[in-house]
Amino acid sequence: MADNNKDADHLSDEAQMQQIRDLIVGSDASRIKQVMQDNARELVSDVVIEAIHDRQKQDDAFDHVLVPLVEKSVQKSVKEHSEQFVGYLYPLVGRLVRKSVTAFLAEFLEKTNDLIENSLTLKGLGWRFRAWQSGVSFSQYVASQTFVFRVEQVLLIHRQTGILLNSVSQAGDNSADADLVSSMLTAINDFVSDSFHTTQQDHEQNLKIIKTEDFSLVIKRGPQLLLVAAVTGNISQDISTKFQITIEHIHKLFSKEISQFEGDTLPFEATTQPLKECLLAELKPEAEKRSKKRPILAIILVCIVFMAIGYWGLLSFKQNQLLHQVSEIGEQPGILVHSAKTTGWQNVAISVLRDPSAISVEQWLEERQIDPQRVQFQESGYLSLEPKLVNTRLENTLNRYPRVTLSWHQGKPVLTGTVANAQRQMLARDLFAIPGLSDANELIKGVSVEELATVDDDSPEILRALFEITRAKIDSAQIEFEQGQSSLNEAAKDQLTALASYLKTAIELSKKLELNVGLIIMGASDSSGSKQFNQALSRKRAQAAQQFLVDQGIDAGYLNAIGLGVVELTATGSGARKVIFNIINFKAE
Amino acid sequence: MIQKKICLLGASGVGKTSLVRQFVEGIFSDKYLTTIGVKIDKKVVELAIGQVQLMIWDIEGIDRYSGFQSKYLRGASAYAIVTDQTRSQSLIEGMEIHLMARAATNAPAIMIINKSDLDVAWHWTQNELNGYSKEFVSCFSTSAKTGAGVEDMFKFIAQLSLK
Known about the structure:
The structure holds two protein chains of two kinds. In chain A, about 55% of the residues lie in helices and about 20% in strands. Chain A has 21 helices and 18 strands. Chain A starts with a helix and ends with a strand. Chain B has a single domain, classed as 3-Layer(aba) Sandwich (Rossmann fold). Chain B is built from five helices and six strands; from the N terminus they run E-H-H-E-E-E-H-E-H-E-H. Chain B has helices at about 15-25, 30-35, 90-105, 125-135, 150-160, and strands at about 1-10, 40-45, 50-60, 80-85, 110-115, 140. Chain B is globular. The interface between A and B is medium-sized, with 23 and 26 residues. Chain A: It holds the Pfam family OmpA. Chain A: Keywords: Membrane, Transmembrane, Transmembrane helix.
């Protein structure tokens, strides 16, 4: 039995192996198989982890199988249990975001630095020129200068049809014509193998590498697939082997998909991961050194940009603040802001409607301590009916009437005072002319007219007028007597009392006017009786009136009583039994 | 997306390249045709079952003296023999090419009689033509100049390639 086992070690052929197995276990084969199957679970569970570990160590094949499975199951879980997933991930998200922002900034700085160094430095300009000269893009030229090699793109092609199954590239943007390139490459390979066939008819010539000055297409061939790597620079044997291993892996993993290939490239999307692993690059030593430098140029540029943005932001903030401040002028009574906007870097322009009674713009700016240089004002006039402005107008009007005082009761104006009638009328006119003043009627009622007697006005015109009025009143007075009588009846006494008061006023006024006055009291009688009697009667009547006035306190020196005798009144045909009065005046000597 | 390789074959000057130009919007590059004898373009065709991207291999015109690069037919899902109805010879040559192609591939083939915008000038009778077209899945009359029949022909070939 042991001998048989030893012999079996030397045999490699599968069929022979089977024979040996048959010899050894013979009819027990099915039983052994049965036992194995019964215990399969335990047997596998004993070694499964180690087996996975060994295989992974050997050629990373486990990754290739597991990654698409995990991706799919995660995708499914996220789709179906998104709430739970959010719960799991929530505590991580903050950290992730911070990390990615940091990474982004670092990469941004790095890229900016490269850009500046490559664009602004002498070397950069030189490279740019040489790239232009050799007809390649600048980035490609930079790559060729910076890297020992770099795998730019990897294509996976179906050999027989030339159809592109998958492609990955360094830049991420797969060339739109990659599928045409694949087909052409297949055609070129066919062309080459046909044109340069060797004497051995069965041996087909195949392209392995297509090389230009600094670009090569490395073609790795599997039984059904091609792996084509577009490489800048020179690749080492290691990398070339890596490509070969990759295509072998893909063949192994996708053998079913390859054999069933009918033009559908979808199943081959899973090859992206192993293909991406082929996108390798190696920096040149000096480039490596350079990349470790801190990106100082970029940091300076970024700082300048931030400072500029900051300064601009500050200016803009201040300008907006000023605009806001200036716009507040609209809160002033009698000023309406029509438009307000920023102009230039730090100025504002404002257009307002302003009532002439409102505060002036310049004054307002000064009160607010705003620099008038920064404010362009455009002002148009208008009439405001705002209560406050109406009040201002009222105050302005009343300034012309010093004897009328303005006071406020619960926000409403009240006028008090006493003025001459003419002035009161003028005031009423003025009040009615104030726009927006609704209660002018009420207001004017508060102002009373000055009584003439209490006039304390010493102007000669007024004194003269008063004198004339008093004089007219005296001159128009006459008192009646009974026939043949010279005594005063009650009515006559009343009249004389009033007359005495007028006369006193007239005397007062005449003193102020520096006039001399005298009252002539003229008695008259009717024609009954003798002429002498009537003459005497008329004098007696005048004297009676005179005596009464003296009794009322009038200085007798002012009074001159005369008898006129019979005064015939032609209109009535009878005489008048009256005493009449006349004031005479003359300038004092 | 499903991708299929198809080939256009035929005698020189029958209008294979013009047919492709009529069908494909962006021409990849004509200059390869004369270099290595094949020009490849692609076009997505909308079919009832979905989209198919045709990789159209336009193989250089062949005459009886020049060889035939049969490798270009490898992996083709269908091919078309293009003839010119103004030249009797183009059908004979087309049939010779078809014979050679048969030896290289089992893919289904269609016949295209091109230049339908011009008057018929070959001496083949309808019976003779029917005899020849038995060899093919279908026969199309097209004009690369006016575009008549071109779209239909390519749609048919796309459908054919899926079988």
